Automatic annotation (TrEMBL):
This is HDOD domain-containing protein. SUPFAM superfamilies: HD-domain/PDEase-like. PROSITE patterns: HDOD. It comes from the Bacteria. It comes from Sulfurimonas sediminis. Residues 12-209 form the HDOD domain. InterPro entries: HDOD, RNase_Y/CdgJ.
Length: 273
């Protein structure tokens, strides 16, 4: 990993007290939705972002969500934590995604799409694993923020963007420019912030799941498939969906469940457009 990226990770500010409290409540088996609502309500930015997500067509709640309590009840504790963390992480980092050819808003939307696909897909396979994977899917592309920043600082933004536009393998492109993939950078970021080992490891191997330790290999494979279907440079394109479905088949997954989930997301997008 380039020393410049290592230094960027080391210099990251700590997570906010609200996020630390959200993690604490989430980890407390005795805590409930009401406890989480009390913590979330302290941070106006998290509240605004949570309500924005709750009223997005991605989630299809079918009615306007106006209160934090409503949103947390509908999302559940795992998804609420994920949305709050995603918002806070992007606030802590300078988000200029020009090398990947997307705006910061589009990047956030793609992260939400990846998390939504993971939740809808894996809920049909194993609800408990779906909860574990949702946060990782939501945050797995975080490393791209630091990679984009490094590429811009090296004055390689234009050439990187030109190659990224038509790339079928962003991980290989990232390695060519900064020696590592975004999964490895993301893992280092959350290791720096003291996240649990399983969460860090499933993301670390998401670009190379066959090399993952056995205990996280299924998770790393699922993350890889989701970001293959919804890559930053061409989310839900026909080619990306075909690659993702093939990857699912090759890894022994029931590709028909994934296909059904993708179709549901495409139908929902058509209805909202």
């Amino acid at each position: 990993m380039k020393s410049s990226i290592i230094e960027s990770i080391k210099s990251l500010p700590p997570l906010s007290k609200t996020i630390i409290d959200i993690n604490r409540v989430y980890a407390d088996e005795e805590a409930g939705v009401g406890d989480l609502v009390k913590v979330v309500e302290r941070d106006p930015m998290i509240v605004a972002n949570l309500l924005k997500h709750a009223n997005s067509p991605l989630y299809g709640f079918g009615r306007e969500i106006k209160s934090v309590a409503q949103a947390v009840s509908l999302f559940g504790m795992s998804m609420t934590r994920s949305i709050a963390l995603g918002n806070s992480v992007r606030k802590l980092l300078n988000v200029d995604m020009q090398p990947y050819g997307v705006t910061s808003e589009k990047f956030a939307e793609i992260s939400s799409m990846q998390a939504t696909l993971m939740r809808k897909w894996y809920t049909k396979i194993d609800k408990q694993k779906a909860d574990t994977l949702y946060l990782a899917a939501f945050l797995q592309e975080t490393g791209k923020i630091l990679i984009a920043s490094d590429v811009i600082q090296e004055d390689e933004g234009v050439s990187f963007q030109s190659e990224a536009e038509h790339s079928n393998n962003l991980a290989e492109l990232e390695k060519a420019y900064v020696e590592v993939t975004s999964s490895q950078v993301t893992a280092k970021i959350f290791e720096h912030w003291g996240f649990e080992k399983e969460f860090v490891e499933m993301i670390r191997y998401a670009d190379n799941p066959l090399s993952a330790p056995e205990e996280v290999q299924e998770y790393a494979t699922a993350l890889n498939i989701v970001k293959t279907v919804i890559p930053v440079n061409s989310p839900l394109s026909e080619q990306a969906m075909n690659f993702g479905l093939k990857r699912a088949k090759d890894s022994g997954c029931d590709a028909s469940i994934l296909q059904e989930t993708i179709n549901d997301m495409l139908d929902a997008a058509e209805v909202s457009s």
